[in-house]
Here is the input.
Amino acid sequence: MNTLIVVGYQNIHKAEEVRLQLWKLQRDYLLDLEDAVVVVKNDNGKVKLHQAFNLTSAGAITGGFWGSLIGLIFLNPLLGLAVGASAGAVSGALTDVGINDDFMKELGTTLTPGSSALFVLLRSPSAAPDKVLEELKGTGGTILKTSLSHEDEAKIQAALNG
Here is the structure.
């Protein structure tokens, strides 16, 4: 079962720093991240999502490859590349994996200007929760939303507070 944790920060750069720490924990097999997105509300009040994966460019690359291949069959690889890349980019832009973008934008509007939030979706519970909490200790932030129990939420908030 997936677990969602949303942590708000008063600094626009802090959520990205913590996301980098989480990627390091994933690399060390201490976390199983499905998605980690940073939402920033700039000083003008505009909300911007910083996705971990750019599905538009990945779709364009994949579509370009398949379009070229099909274009070779019909003796027009450049046309196939152009059509495939544009179709792949459109399908990638319309694809939403992980955390729902509308949910993140809606929650992002509640942030104060000049702040950020980190949305984390875990595939499974941590193999070593004490090591994860130790790594996150003192990073600050406030839990805004979570699907954890109240007890687990309190443990994470205590670790964030340091």
